[in-house]
Amino acid sequence: MQLDYKKLNFKCGIEIHQQLDTKKLFCNCPSLIRDDKPDIIIKRRLRASAGESGEVDAAALHEVKKEKQFIYQAYSDTTCLVELDEEPPHDVNKQALEISLQIALMLNAKIVDKICFMRKTVVDGSNTSGFQRTALIATDGFIETSKGKVKIETICLEEEAAKIVKRTKKEDTYNLSRLGIPLIEIATSPDIKDPEHCMETAKKLGMILRSTNKVKRGLGTIRQDVNLSIKGKSRVEIKGFQDLRNMPKIIENEARRHLELLEKGQELKKEVRKANKDLTTSFMRPMPGSARMYPETDIKTIRPDISKIKIPELITDKSEKLEKDFNLNKDLADLITKSGKIDFFISLANKYKNIKPLFIADILMNSGKEIKRRYNKEIDASRHIEEILEHLNKGKISKEAVFEILVEKANGKKIDYKKYLLMSDEEIKKILKEIIAKNKGAPFNALMGQAMAKLRGKADGKKIVELLKKLV
């Protein structure tokens, strides 16, 4: 049965957490996440501190009751005493702060007058200090979507948590290489209309973040949490979305779970739940509240200056411009834009004027995948493309030869370009006449097939067709 989300009084908002591609937020350590053997091991137990209200947060108490010991792995060359909580935080990373302000402006948000870092109680072991440092950067932003405006309530800058390595009943092991990476948190108002709209909103926010070209890419560098409720009942937060394509179904299943509980007269609990692989959710912990926040006294208050902040062009706008300026199809333009190779492609298209930009784009973006599919060999076409296009642009080799040369490079062979030199018209005619003589009465397409097989990489396809037509 199709759910009527309007009738259900469906309320939904999303939180995006995105790692920034800078050094760490409160020290000069690199944002390098490691898996190799650590050379420092420390053990800790954490306790929950009372927040500004004087109360201890319910989610923090839930973790404290587990009475766990925490083991932390660190490295002498890429982590420091700040991550170990043996030294106060240094000044806030200026680049991370600038990127945060840039994103806030891209989201049409109002920058706060003063940036004050707070401590957010976290005693599950993911922070050695027992809290996460976070600061409000901006409020009251918005994005436009196909189903109306989605308001952005808050934009925060905070430090990433440590990476879990192993959990047991008595001990949790964390790796500190991830702890302290700058993280921007974007929280929307509950303006999302339905599960599909939630996915659209998440994609739009992700696109805006990537448009800065200053955020980390790859698995685990961005996380989405969804907050939802139906019929004005308790709000639930869902964490751990691995694939945005699964988001609508997980949200739909959670809404159905709420509906079934209400129909049975059971209470809906305000809690944090995990998105499971089978597209259901499971309980993680009670919902945290305001009791977990208290001021950070080790970091100076910052008065933000946005006078020199430049707003970058959106990825979608860049893609449309590529389509128009270089006569590319939408899929190729999108691929180039998302890959971050726009400037490289434009430089190639402007340098090699005798080659169609569409051909250059196709080789740059698709040849590596095609070689992997056909021959199970890895190659980064961008490393070799200029050398090959140089020969093609001068008319020394054919377009068909480009792929063959890349295949040879993928196999680790040294390229002899003499082997790929284009034949003269007379040389092509001689071979075509031999093919015609051996296949008397054969249809044009059959002759063409043999000609292409014989001359592949040695003559331009259009030239072969042109000369064969004259000879048949």
Question: How would you describe this protein?
Answer:
The chain is an alpha+beta fold and 472 residues long. The protein folds into three domains: 11-295, no CATH class; 315-420, no CATH class; 425-471, Arc Repressor Mutant, subunit A. Helix content is 35%, strand content 21%. The chain contains 13 helices and 15 strands. The strands form two sheets. Strands 1, 4, 5, 6, 7, 10, 11, 12, 13, 14 and 15 form an eleven-stranded mixed beta sheet that branches. The protein has a four-stranded mixed beta sheet with strand order 2-3-9-8, with no helix packed on it. The protein is elongated and about 95 Å long. The N and C termini lie far apart (65 Å). The mean pLDDT is 92.
In short:
By secondary structure, this protein is α+β, with helices and mostly antiparallel strands. It has helices at residues 58-64, 94-106, 195-211, 247-263, 315-326, 330-339, 342-351, 357-375, 385-393, 399-410, 425-438, 444-455, 461-471; strands at residues 11-19, 40-44, 69-74, 110-111, 117-121, 131-145, 148-159, 163-167, 171-175, 182-188, 222-229, 236-239, 271-275, 281-286, 293-295. The strands form 2 sheets. Strands 1, 4, 5, 6, 7, 10, 11, 12, 13, 14 and 15 form an 11-stranded mixed β-sheet that branches.
What descriptors fit this protein?
single chain; 472 residues; alpha+beta; Arc Repressor Mutant, subunit A; eleven-stranded mixed sheet; four-stranded mixed sheet; 13 helices; 35% helix
How are the secondary structure elements laid out?
Elements: E1 11-19, E2 40-44, H1 58-64, E3 69-74, H2 94-106, E4 110-111, E5 117-121, E6 131-145, E7 148-159, E8 163-167, E9 171-175, E10 182-188, H3 195-211, E11 222-229, E12 236-239, H4 247-263, E13 271-275, E14 281-286, E15 293-295, H5 315-326, H6 330-339, H7 342-351, H8 357-375, H9 385-393, H10 399-410, H11 425-438, H12 444-455, H13 461-471
Parallel strand pairs: 3-9, 12-13
Antiparallel strand pairs: 1-10, 1-11, 2-3, 4-6, 5-6, 5-15, 6-7, 7-10, 8-9, 11-12, 13-14
Helix pairs in contact: 3-4, 5-6, 6-8, 8-10, 9-10, 11-12, 11-13, 12-13
